[in-house]
Batch of 3 targets.
Target 1
Amino acid sequence: MQLLQVLTDTKQKAEVTIDMATGLVSKIVDFTIGYAPKIVGAILFYLIGTWLIKKMVSLIAKFLQAKDYDPSLESFLLSIVKVALTILLFVSIMGIVGVDTGAFSALIVGAGVAIGGALNGSLGNLAGGVMMLIFKPFKVGDMIEAQGITGMVSEQGVFNTTVLTPENKTVFIPNGPLSTGVITNYTSYGNLRVDLTMAISPNTEIETARSVAIAAMLTHPKVLKTPSPEVNVLKVGDGMVTLAIRPYCVQADYWDVYFGAQELVKNAWDKHGIDGPTPHRVVITKSA
């Protein structure tokens, strides 16, 4: 009897195991039949989507190259486009598989808002850098004056612009305030006019002083012959005649001409007996 009972229990357990296995197989089959088309569709959608993303990025890259945009701007924009399209593809695939994309989209938006708040200042610099790289108010090598800084642009980044000053100081200007402020580009038209002011005695013949100054400036190897240097009367008064001395040069030679032209003109005037202004003071004495 005990043996019969053991056999009966074993048979029942075997039947239960078989039923469980059959149920599991049935569920797997049902799952496969139900989700196989979705999985296959998701795989096909992924393959087609990645191919389309590569094509779109390639077309945008050709467009940016044709417009001759800055390489750093090209790289940045292409990265943004690729990341955005990849996220969109991922969300779409999740929707095909059957995952609720509403919560996932809300998570992405929330993360974006949090990151944007944390990087508020940096995003302003980023936007300013992108705008300047697109509209190009200056380029690397130009001499500019902006945000109280004058110097040559040595590097133009997405977040900062690097300027090398005449004192050989490297200044990093954030692109946010730079893009919204006044920018003076001294190099846009190729030649720079160096504005100097020098004074002569009111008894000196102006035309003589002008011809001597122009001849002296033309001896400077970095002063351009065309356009020719200019000397004009700026102001008459205060016991002197103030002249505007204006030689022209290329951007790279600005400071050499700025200092060198003044020295040459001063020496030439001394040689030709052209006197500078003599300070004088009028003293009025009142009698008691």
Note: Residues 2-66 form the longest helix (65 residues).
Target 2
Amino acid sequence: MALYLVRWPDLSCTLVTAHDEDHLGYLLDQVGNPEGCRWTEYHGPVFIDFHLPVRVTIDWPEQAGRPLSPEAVRIEDLSALAQGEAIQADVDASETAYEMLKAIMEFAFPATANVYYNALEESLDESQLRDALMADLTPLTEASWRRAHTERTAKDDPAAKLAVEIDTSMGLAKHWEAIATGTHKGDDDKFGGNDGLAEDEAGRMLSLLELLNFETAKSQTIPLRRHPELTLRDEANAITAHVFRNGFLEDLHSGLPSPLVTNPRFARISDPEMKKLMIESSAKLAHWLYLRELLLEKKPEAYYELLRVITLRASRNWDREAQSYDVSAPEYDQSCASCNYPLHPEWRCCPVCERPI
């Protein structure tokens, strides 16, 4: 993982870790349209303080050498934490923190940094600062011009149309379109996209059905939003275990194996059972999606902990990348004398040739 310093078109910047620039573009797009962003790998100092949004009062003992008693520590105000505010970050006045802020400011806002750090007097000239800020806001107007151009060309350019519809940059739109159309990469842009698309493929558009087959293999290993270890597949495993596996499907799966379920002539699930399975699974999935949106927005760590609990309880040993599984014939000691198909000891006929046992 690399640490990137990203300058947004407005007067803000972000430190974010990503596997590479392709992954970085994907992460930025989760927050906002990355059109006009610029970035660099950050190798400077890092010194950031974190604290919980609570107020604590401590009555330190007046006598030297006496330890602090638990009764001397009082939680005065935890209302912000109770209302869902997460851990907060601050930059202290240490020398390392000063050097970090200077390095970030010189990359993200060079004109303002030049005035700020080279001023001869303690009080900065507001007119100089205003001119510097306007200079550092140039990326905002440039990004606005590019978005306006994209909107004007969306009628005739499929990539521009995609960029407008999903509110992303042209670079990412071209990258996703190239992947969806199976175009091999040639001259990569900063998002890994390709400007040399074949003429007959350049006019193609990501349709809704094409999205269902979009990067199915790569999606198994993409990190879950803002989490360093959990992947989308880990989330999918937990959802599958909770929503589908631990429901009516478990009732259908319980009991002894029957020869009828291995015979393709017979349905394994009746229509009423299928309806019950789909209704109950959809209801549980809707509730899960409700919790997902609620927790990821307010308390993401609670959602990650929920995934970990379900994983430990129900899907700990599940595969994290496989997309299919070959079902082979069951292994039993006895086999059919006619077709050699393995037979369960309690079966009274062969499920393949239907010969009585």
Note: Residues 326-357 form one domain.
Target 3
Amino acid sequence: MAKFRSGYANVETLRKYVNGEPTNVTKDNVPGDPDYRPKYLSDQCEANTDVPDNVYSLPIEADPYAADEYASPEKSEKQESTITFNEMNKGWTSFHSYIPEFMQNINGDFYTFKDGQMWQHHADENNRNTFYGQSYNTEVGIVSNPAPSENKIFKTIEIEGDSSNWDVTVTTNLDSGHVASESFKKKEGFYYAYIRRDNEDITNTELLSVQGIGNLVLLNNLTYTFNFVPSSVSIGDTIYRAQGGSYQQIGVISEKTSQSLTVGGSTVVPNPGDFFFGAKSPIAESYGLKGYYANIKLVSNSTTPVEIFAVNAEIAKSFP
């Protein structure tokens, strides 16, 4: 494991070596020289004076052969993570949100350092996902892609585990949706819920939950009259005015006849001839998400142990 480097050092003088043996020939280390050695990360740094009682600082052995590895380091703008290696699987298996300065196993216990202070991990089994005094969520991400060449409808999420305390987001190449943790119902030992579309889809005119009404004939106080109101438009739906390629919300339908709709007050003042459409709640009217594949992310804020064995999705072939 690479040692943690905590400071910068400059090479001031270069010495000539012949057949691996040093000579008395030296020269200054200056930029532009073919042998120039740039500033590199070093183990030399000031000791932390704020170390609490019973915590000791140990020196780190210098590595004279690692100068090239640490030359001119640059910090990425991407999100930082701590990754862990699994010896059994021989691979990198997990990402962690906490960022320690140094890590060490001592007598079977795992310790990390943050801001010069030493922390013991797994010390409080009933307060998990808390690192350096800050709480984090647990996130599990999977991809569902059976029959990769077919367009599908992802309808449900099923969790095999001991808890339904998971908020789920589902994203396909065409749609996006979610499952709130309170939506899961226990069935035969599994937790089961329908995938709901996001509320932002309410004005998505490609969905069946959006239905055209027609052009406005007359507005009398809060009553909007049309030549015909489709039967699929119901009390509780939201109506919108379409104008110039944009949509303006009018309000929620409280009364309905075959030719009129009564809607709550609105700041929008429409004109006769304006086109209107009705939209049902995309969450309540969800039929699933279309797409070739689905990225499924589960998030839990539990601080106690939670087991999850499998995540399943009910999928049907989509027919255009």
Note: The chain has four domains: 7-70, 82-136, 139-198+286-317, 201-279.
